[in-house]
Every structure is written in C-alpha cells, then in structure tokens.
Amino acid sequence: MSNIVEDELSRPSVFKDESKLSIDYVPENLPHRERELKQLARTFRMVLEKPGSSQRVIIIGNVGTGKTALAKNFGNQISAIANKKGINLSYIHINCRRERTSFTILNRVVKTLNPKIPRRGFSTEELLQILKEILEERNIHVILTLDELDFLLKREGEQLLYSLIRLFDEQLNVAQRLSLIGIMRNEILFRHLDPSVISSLQQNIIRLKEYSAAQLETILSERAKEAFHMGTITIEEIRFIAEIAAMKGDARYALEILWRAGKIADARNKTRVSPEHIREAKAGIYPVVRREVLQELPFQHKVLLLAISRTLTEDRAYITTSETEKTYRVICEEYNIRPRKHTQFWEYLKELEKQGIITTKISGVGMKGKTTLISLQDIPTSILEQEILNLLGGIK
Ligand code: ADP
Ligand code: MG
Q1: If one looks up domain 4-22+211-283 in CATH, what number appears?
Q2: Residues lining ligand 1, Cβ inside 6 A
Q3: Ligand 2 mean position, distance from CA 147 (Å)
C-alpha cells in the first residue's frame, strides 16, 4: 500500500519533459513562420531605432496557425534585444478571452507595469490616463499584444482599440509610447472594423495560413525532441499525427494529439507511442471542449460547468437551471468559495452557451411554467466532469 505513490512516480515515462507540449510554452524556434517573424522585426525596427515612434500590426489566422506563438516569440526576442541596447521597452501580452472586458484588460496592463496600483476604484477612462502617465514617467515604450481580440470586439465593440490607438495621437510632437499588435481569427470581423481603425493598421497585416501536413511534421518533430525520450516515438508516428491534423492545418490540435498519445502510452505501461495510441488520442478529443478552451475559462465558469456535468446524469438529456444552481451551491461549499448571486449565475450560463460549450432552450409543454433547460451535446458528461476536476485540482 505504502509503495503506490513511489512506484507510480518511478515508473518510466515516454516523456522527458511534458511541459514542452503545454499550451503556454513558447518554443524558441518556429519553423515555417520565419517570414512572418522577419516581417514583425522589419516593422518594429523603427521603434528601436527612432524612439518615440510606434507601430500597429494585426495578425489574422485560424486556430492553431501559430498566432500566439509568433507574437510571444517575437515579444521575447525584441525585449531581449532592447534590453541589450539599453532601450526601455516592454512587451505585454494580454488574452482578451481570459481578461474579458476593457476594464480588466487595462487593469492587467497597468498592473504589469506598476504592481502597486490599487485594484479597484478606477474607470476605464482613468485607467487609460494612468497608463499614459506611467509610460511617460518611466520613459518606456510598450508593445501591447491584444490576443483573441475577436472576443473583445464581439463583446464591447472597438472602443478600447480606438482609445489605445488615439492615446498618444491627440497631441502633436509627443513621443509615441504604445505599439499595438492585434491578433484575430475572424477575417470578416476585421473587415467590419471602423475604417479609421483599419486604415491605421492597413500597412501591417500578417495573415497566417493553415499548416500543411509536411509543415506540421517538422513542427511536431521539433517539439517531440524536446518533450519525449529518445526512441519512444518515431518519425512514422509523427507523420501519422501530422496527416491527421493537416485536415485542419492546426498545430494546436496536432500537439494535443501528440501529448495525449504519450499519456495513453504511459497509462498502458508502454515504452513507445504506437499508432493505436494515436488513434485513441484522436478519438478522445472533443472539438468544442478542447483543453485550451476549458483551461482558459474563468474559475467560476469552471465551477458552473462542473455543476452542469454533475447534474446531467447519464440518462438525462436536459436539466433545469434551478437544479443546476442547487448543485452549483453545493460545489461552491465543497470548494469553500462564495456562490455568486442568481443574476451572475445566469450570466455565466449565457457565456458558456455563447462559447458553444452548452446549449439552452426554453421548456415547452409538459412542464410547469417556463424554465430554461440546459443540455450538453458535444461531450459525454462523465468526461467533462473529469476534465474540469483535473483543472480545478490545480487551482484550489
Ligand atoms: P493560435 O494562437 O494561432 O491559435 P498558437 O500560437 O497557440 O496558435 O499555436 C498552437 C500551438 O502550436 C502552440 O503550442 C504553439 O507553440 C505551436 N506552434 C504553432 N506554430 C508553431 C511553429 N511554427 N513551430 C512550433 N510550434 C508551433
Ligand atoms: Mg492563440
């Protein structure tokens, strides 16, 4: 009995360093994105050479085309170079899906620059002014990346983008201290932006194409070298994964299959990843509730999803909101957190629906009164519960 943990920990694994496959890891090399990296470098060259000038860039591409990796990799490199040259430059990367509102986005930016700023009590307008003052006082240039900008635009429109673009533009002859990189998925949403916003970005649009099977193969090989022990996975298996993922051209999907296949090999006590593990890994990925979608949900949303997955037992297609709210309260107690009010609960529910994770409908005949019914169409409830528990385990 006492050896269970020790045995488990000393069991060999196909992984040398699993974290190299995690979503937040930024690889030092980005094969097949050299051209785009060069384009970013050319664009921002002026910011380094002529302090007081700024740039705006937009990166557009589908899921898993390397937008985030490209921006972060560039950010790391340009900060290091600026540092070496003694230029006061800071790269800040904000995920608009995680931060959700203009206010929280700005708060995060300001906090990154000055952790001592009190958290509450400012309006968005005031935060913009504070940001401007910090940049001027500290004589610093910030390259701010707004990643997953689609979410902010759909929620609040383009006001924040507009304000940020104009932050230093209103006065003549002042140093431009804020450069922007916007990252978006949706080309149509981009084309509907205000013409003044578009025209200020027009010069610098980087479009990332989906990766081909051959490109995914190099990407996977490089990542596998870092993550797996030698000999635990061969080029045959890597090619197999690349071909599967090439249907979508999505590197994230490819890496997720690779990672899951390794986990399955470990769970089966195998010393190598086999094609069968890959097939199994592929079958275990539910598109709407991919690892990163769930991971990026705010804590309260995760708790609510857990409540939904627990209320929805195997033989039920729909559950009511009131029974879900009851389970939600029990779980809050379990986790020792304060349950949110009904209106807030309702808002979380709507957001989960907007993200396509759950569906809701109004009850029809056969039920007393009208009530909203919740359903889960795209993933077995037991699997969702397990995934959420894994994530909450880390946060608690
Ligand atoms: P996007 O932001 O476009 O959805 P990401 O930048 O998150 O895509 O990329 C998805 C995953 O694939 C990340 O883990 C990233 O590190 C990896 N990735 C994407 N492109 C490359 C590349 N060219 N080389 C190595 N890894 C890559
Ligand atoms: Mg991204």
Answers
A1: 1.10.8.60
A2: 23, 27, 30-33, 61, 63-69, 219, 251-252, 255
A3: 7
Give residue-wise pLDDT tens across range 4-53. Answer: 777 767 778 999 999 999 888 999 999 999 999 999 999 999 999 988 89
Query: Which of the four pLDDT bands, split at 50, 70 and 90, describes residue 143?
Result: very high
As a whole number, mean pLDDT of residues 220-244 equals 96
User: Quick one: which atom of ligand 1 is closest to the CA of 23?
Assistant: 14
**What torsion, rounded to 10 degrees, do the Cα atoms 292, 298, 304, 309 define?**
10
Could you tell me the residue ranges of all domains in the chain?
A: 4-22+211-283, 34-208, 291-392
Assign domain 34-208 to a CATH class: alpha beta
Residue 8 token pair: 């488990």
| Distance between Cα 33 and ligand 1 center (Å) | 10
Q: For residue 147, which ligand has an atom nearest its CA?
A: 2
d(CA 71, CA 348): 30
For residue 67, the tally of other CB atoms under 10 A from its CB is: 24
The answer to whether domain 34-208 and domain 291-392 are alike in fold is no
Closest residue CA from atom 5 of ligand 1: 66
Cα 193 to ligand 1 centre (Å): 26
> pTM to 2 decimals?
0.83
| For the chain, percent of residues with pLDDT exceeding 70 | 96
Place of tokens 């309702």: 346
Q: Which two tokens stand for residue 263?
A: 């986990």
Atom 6 (ligand 1) nearest CA: 66
d(CA 278, CA 208): 27
Using CA positions, which residue lies closest to atom 19 of ligand 1? 66
Check if the beta carbon of residue 319 is closer than 8 Å to that of residue 373.
yes
**Cα 211 to chain centroid, rounded:** 19
> Cα of 64 to ligand 1 centre, how many Å?
6
Q: What is the pLDDT of residue 306?
A: 95
Which of the listed residues 30, 59, 70, 72 should we mutate to test ligand 1's pocket, taking the one with most ligand atoms within 8 A of CB? 30
CATH class of 291-392: mainly alpha
Task: Give φ, ψ of 55 to 5 degrees.
Answer: -135, 155
